[in-house]
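Sequence in, structure out.
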Amino acid sequence: MKVNKVLAIISTKSITETNIVLRAAGNVSELVGYKAMNRKEDKTPHWRRRILDKQKVLRKDLGQLNRMKRNELRNEGTITKLERKYCIEEKGVSVVHEEVQQRLVAIGAKLVRYDNRTSHYRQNRLFESNQKKLFDELDGVKREMVVPDAEESSRFWSDIWDNSVKHKENPEWWKNVEDELAGVGVQGDIRIETPKLRKQIRKIPNWKSPGPDGVQGYWIKNLTNLHAVAWIDYRKAYDMVPHSWIEKCLDMFGIAVNVKSFINKDQIDSLVNTVRIFSEDIKMEFGLSKCGVLIIKRGKIVESDGLCMPDGAMMRNVEESGYKYLGVLEVDGIKHDQMKDQVKKEYTRRVRNILKSKLNGGNIISAINSRAVSVVRYGAGIIEWTKNELEEMDRNTRKLMTMYGAQHPKADVDRLYLKRYDGGRGLLGVEDCVQAEVNSLDKYLRASEENMLKEVNISSILENKKHGQSREDIQKSHKERYENKGLHGQFHKATVKVKSNKSWDWLRKGYLKKETESTIIAAQDQALCTGNLRKRVYGEDIHSSCRVCGTAEETVAHIVSECQKLAQKEYKEVRHDNVAKVIHWKLCEKWGFEKSDKWYTHKPEKVMESDECKILWDFPIQTDKILEHNRPDITVIEKNSKKCLLIDPACPFDTRIERKEEEKCNTYCDLKYEIARMCRMKEVEVIPVVVGALGSVTKDFEKWIKKLDLGITAEMLQKPCLLGTARIIRKVLDMK
């Protein structure tokens, strides 16, 4: 390139000169017609490229093996290469062909699994950071960033501010309003304190569409240094009408002086669209494009050509389909049937899209509550829903959840709508939502001091309406029904006295996949299709013994914690050892031993020792006396402080967690005294870490965990335990 050759002979003395030369060279290159080659960077991950390359090679080999199998391959070099690569002479063409074919299928399945896992991580991260973007993605909506034209924006706002408009002084109706409000006192100065401000900010919806500032509630909540924007909503109210009119109204209503002085054109940072024609009195503009005329005579709609305004502008006639006012379709009244059809379709569409996603169980429920139920909530108290219609929508929701693996078909219904804090799934039912909204609307109307709303209270409009139930009453009703059920309430009744409230931490976090969460909930509800359930409840004529050991009654408790044939492998390796592995991983982190990045890839060594600490994994402790129990899962010896910890995790059935803690302490009591005597330890302590097979923990659980001083929380140990339990349940129930 000639420009590049010229650059070689130009000397520069500073980075500024170099920059100037480079910019000039770029401009000259464009003038002479040089086109820069923009090489697109391959963003495909390395692991995917590696697998795709391998897949490509196998497909090529499979094609050649097909030809070889049909005696159509003539190239000797290719035949020799295939024979060496796959040992065809030893195995035979048919065997090699089948092996390659199966490897291709396995690679395809691996790609699908990896893609699903990637989508799972990405969608859950996106849900936590930007729900709007995730919902657009699920709906197939692609939004493009539109940069506004600077000149057009300047001209638009100049037309608004340069034309000074003032409301009409002393209209005829104004005297009546002033007389009516003559007794209103002047409001004292408003003092907004930080605690009150934060309390109100917490009520802002996280991902509701933002205003002109473009800031969503999530960031307002979390960027605490920017909480001065709390005044922004007060300002926005003044951008739609002339400020002289607003000042007049504020004087009439006795608004605080410091609030009135805040209204200043120079201080206002954001504006909204104004409309074209100002009214004669308050100079507030009406948008004719959104206005409509409806003429009714003797209860029947009369066709018209619209309404001609004094300035000649025409206000159009309302179409047959109706006029949409604040999202509600109306003609001579609200079109309830059409609105209900629209709401049902949109609600179902959103629920289906959310359930198709890879979101975790907790995020799935949160997404349905915020994204789908909001469609119904908006018209609650306005659209006249019948009880049957709302119940049908809830049933359809549960059917969809069952179809996509988010709800077991036999799991308890009331528990689905119970708060996660109380051990439920936290789904907001459509019927519950409408009831609560109607109740809130009713309370608001009855408590309002607004003159027009007082007239509503005086009239009999509300007397014939059902006022719904409060959210608290609805939750209480669901909880009572769930806990009093004979089958589904068994788990609660059997564990309520032994477990702590930390037992529901895994539900509150909601980090399990929807399929795993629904399996664990169904197990707690005794809803799994066990032999005992089929015989005792469904009345089937079958043998109800365990399909694995064949000796005991097949119940949920037996499957997850009592079957002898599952004890050594499934209970120990799949569940117990993973719980212990989390503790060992955190111990390695505390004492500076080498460990993997994730606990599930961590491989504990039998002995790990440094100058300060020694950690033994499943290692027998030698003593001069013969002890029956001398092999705790983890032994920690702190050399400097002469302290020894005997850590022994366990995952019994949830009804036995309290007894298991006592049993662990008593089991290693003799070993504790022997270690103290032989090794001259100042302190030897047995720490039982007991997590129920279905997630329950005792009231003393936190006490034992604090003694470890590892920063471990209940949900960190519940996760490996519940994952192991879900795997055991699936394996057993899949057996015939």
